[in-house]
Structures are given as C-alpha cells and as structure tokens.
C-alpha cells in the first residue's frame, strides 16, 4: 500500500522505517533539510540490531497517498486540519498522545478515520536517526465503528518488533495510555529523571500515586489497581528511558502538557473533581517551557 506519514519526529521516523519493509512510504517533514537527509541517507534505526530504511520524503503538503498516518504532536494539528479538510476521501490514522484531536475528528467527515495508540519508546537522535528504546504495539481502532478490520490487518508487517493490533473500541485504549502519560511524563520532566524513578524514588512515587488518583477520578476509572499495575509496569520496563516530555524540555522544545494534563484539568473542573496535583505539575512544566524559551 502507498502510505503517507506526516511528521518527521521520533514516532514518524519509527513508523516510516518499519512500515517500509512492506509498504511504499512517503514521509512528509516540516523542513526540506530533513526531507533531503531522509531521501539521501535513509532512516537509521538504532536498537539491538541497527538498520537503515529507505523511503521517499518531501516537505510539501501534497498528501496524495490514499492512506495517511498523522504523527505530528497535538499542538501541530490545528494547522494540519485545514489541509486535511480539503483532501478527497482517504483512510487517516491519528497516533497522537492525549485526546484533544478526537473532539475535532467530526470535521473530517469525508474520510475514513482511525485512532491509534503507540506503545513503543522512541527518541529522535538526528533528522534521520531514531532510537527504538522500547518494544510495544500500535493499537488501532476505527473512530466511529465503521472502519474495516482488514485495513488494519493489511498494515501489519508481521515484524515481532513492530506489531499492529486491531481494537474494537478506541476509548479504553486511549484513556489507558493517557493516564500513563499523565503520570509518567510530567514527573520525569520536572525532576529530570528516567521513567523508573516514578516507582523507585519513594518521594516521587508518593507524588505519582497522588497524581494517579486525581487522573482516575477525572477519567472515572473503576479498576484503579489494574491501571496502576499497568503504569508501574511501564515505568519498570522502561526504567532507563527518558520520557518524550523530558526530552522536549532538555531540547528546549514545546511539550504536550496542554493535551495531556491541560485537557484533564479542564475535564476535572467541569466535574468538580480535585485537580490540585495536576494543576501544580501543569504550571511547573509550563514554567520550564517558558524558561527554556527565554
């Protein structure tokens, strides 16, 4: 299949590289410099067995492929939506953190829409190099229940390092990932520490548990024990990894705090839920962003 991957960050590079083993991939980047780097040198994937994938790459907004995977961060979506609205009907898969984009999907009614959750760990090391730091799955669900399972099965490369799994209902999958991001990302970014410290450092662990209960109350999670075990397992499994939000702070980039904690705080206020810990962390990360910008 001919697939366009929009976004040349860590996730976009990783998806482009692995899907190129089976599909015809075009990576759409923000800059021509990155597009040239990818076209001429390929995408270098760092891992247990480093390898290089060769894909097409361009910095325009042609988006002629019948299948598009949107791998930009939440804050880049508003400008992209304008272009997507003008396109003829396509299959479009969104793989963002958070839930902000889901509320706008009704604007793209002509398209067949899918919601994806990326469980892999990935860090962008250079314009055409990505470090595959954690093996997981990409879980994809039809947005409105009308998507074809066959399409998602066809995407799958059958590579055990990069499995794509069909999910009937996107909501529990997305909320589970949102809860994990809401607990792990802000704390690791604030304290400048790898993921494992969320459980190994007793003081940070207390904050994580307090934050976790606020998140669960806002999302109306009933099985808190199961969700905490999931978050704890991620922190332990990726104990030496640095979260994407920490990487953004370290590289003086804008974070996704608005689409992770910002949305949860707003939902909490609407429900009259306690959001004190979330508000503290939200303001702390915004403060770090502002300091880095200066």
TrEMBL record:
The keyword Calcium does not apply. It is an enzyme of class 1 (oxidoreductase). Keywords: NADP, Oxidoreductase, Pantothenate biosynthesis. Residues 3-144 form the Ketopantoate reductase N-terminal domain. Pfam families: ApbA (PF02558), ApbA_C (PF08546). One of its GO terms (biological process) is pantothenate biosynthetic process. GO terms for cellular component: cytoplasm. The keyword Oxidoreductase applies. Its EC number is 1.1.1.169. Residues 170-289 form the Ketopantoate reductase C-terminal domain. It comes from the Bacteria. Pathway: Cofactor biosynthesis; (R)-pantothenate biosynthesis; (R)-pantoate from 3-methyl-2-oxobutanoate: step 2/2. PANTHER family: 2-DEHYDROPANTOATE 2-REDUCTASE, 2-DEHYDROPANTOATE 2-REDUCTASE-RELATED. Catalyzes the NADPH-dependent reduction of ketopantoate into pantoic acid. Belongs to the ketopantoate reductase family. This is 2-dehydropantoate 2-reductase. It comes from Aeribacillus pallidus.
